[in-house]
Write a structure and sequence with these properties.
The complex is a heterodimer.
Chain A lengths: L3 E5 L9 H9 L9 E10 L2 E10 L7 H5 L5 E3 L5 E3 L9 H5 L6 E2 L5 E2 L5 H4 L6 H5 L5 E5 L6 H6 L4 E2 L11 E4 L4
Parallel strand pairs in A: 1-10
Antiparallel strand pairs in A: 1-8, 2-3, 4-5, 6-7, 9-10
Chain B lengths: L4 H24 L14 H24 L4 H4 L2 H22 L8 H4 L6 H24 L3 H27 L11 H25 L4 H37 L4 H12 L3 H22 L5 H25 L25 H24 L7
Helix pairs in contact in B: 1-13, 2-4, 2-7, 2-8, 2-12, 4-6, 4-13, 6-7, 7-8, 8-9, 8-12, 9-10, 9-11, 9-12, 10-11, 11-12
Classes of the chains: A alpha+beta, B mainly alpha.
Chain lengths: 181, 374
Amino acid sequence: MANYVMFIDPNKCTGCNACRIACQMQWNLPPHINFNRLDECVEGQYPNLTRVITPLQCQHCDNPPCQTVCPTNATYKREDGIVLIDEKKCIGCKHCMVACPYEARVISESGVPEKCRFCAEYVVNGEIPACVSTCMCGVRTFGDMDDPASPIHAALAGQELMQLLPGHETAPRVLYAKKRR
Amino acid sequence: MKKNIWTYTALVLIGIAGLGAINKYFISGEHAFGVSPEVPWGALIASYVFFAVAATGTGLVASLGHVFRIKRFEALSKRALVASILLLTSAFGILAIELSNPFKMIWIIFTPNFSSPIFWMGAFYGIYLVLLFGELFFSIKDKHKAAVSIAYVSLLVKIAALINLGRVFGFSSTREFWHGYYYPGYMIVTAIVSGAAVLTIMVYLISKKDASLDYTGQPLFTSLGKILAGAIIFLAGMQAFKLGIALTSGDTSLSGPAQAVISGPMAPSFWTMEVLVGMVIPLVILFTSRFLSRGKILLSAALAMTGLLFSRLGFVYSGLVFPLEIVPKGCSFFDSLNMYSPTWSEWSLIFGAIGFIYLAFTVAEDKLKLEVKH
């Protein structure tokens, strides 16, 4: 069984939004629905300002709060680590949206709180997610931690890593490179 | 059944609510409501809580008759059960329209998630509704032993349902302002406020028709007025404590929402409707009238319910108003709050539910034998 992880180096991100658009095209999403987004802000005091961009999406937590609160078990976690939604079971209560500390979910046209799927149907065939393949700067790397040949190992080597909101103990599967100022 | 201006008003409100529901299901979808990914729960979740807690509170206060054998409350028993059923049915109706896919609720039976507070909410309130129908059936058939037995079980289910409803909000650590044990207690206290208020309004509406209420009417009004006043004072103390703790916590995820409530976008609704209309004016009226004037107790009850509706709106919005700090940083991210305001569709469903409750109660009063025999 695979053990999927994504690595994101925000220091390389130019803010072009190609990842968001590639994902929308991959999943045929309307313009107002996106499974990943860029959090942008400006840090520091004038004139020493830094534009900080952080790509955000579902973190595919090992301890997902969205799964804990789902009354019908519509949200479930696969053995390979991917958190998915079974649309036929989702009642649309949106408790998962309230419980997710990453604001990863958006309500779809069919009333299902959707989110990034790690391109589950594609990665099992050895393909990589659309947001990863489209990025011109190699911000994102996706791979199977249990596969020694996976590019994820090279990407993670020597990196100082961080997870978002470690205090929530969600154990995310999206790892970030620490930001360089 | 005699028709009057309120009958036609109720029918109009139900009709407009129907348009609101059509807008949600056939025209606008989720866009019919003012919710967003940042504020996924809005006025319909708030009004679900309003009606469901009022249903439980009505049963809770009315149980003073069936369960605790206080004579003057026994006159309320059957009508309180009818009111509870109608309030709970309205709550479920609103929730069904809020939910994107209510018919998929069947999966709660096939693949239940026992760690989910919403699963338990469905379980407790579902059982409560069945118990209400059972208690009403046996009460109408004058099988008091069976009715009282159900009332005892129902009391436990009511309390469990209220505590669990607080858990729906307090369960997740993601929304710091809701997180913890405050809201289960808040649900119980507000249930007593709404229960006393609903029963006051109900007794006033039927007191002219039912001779038994002429006999017990005044002591009953005074008792309900005192319960209402006591619960409002307790609620005001709890809310002041909650906001005070949040404001002085030094944690922006707590103080931010509290600031939004007292001086931010929620302040006009909080100070005018929740505090003034829902608490201060009812208390002034009740204490100056010394709990003796039926009309003034009725007015206090109506104002308390109005204030409580806005309190529910504020309670739901306050947990979502402050942006989540997903990325640790020192930028000006928190300058903006998550904005939300209810749409006409949401308001139409709330007022439609009120119309439905009034209309259905008058029909039940007309068709069922709800008088208490002496």
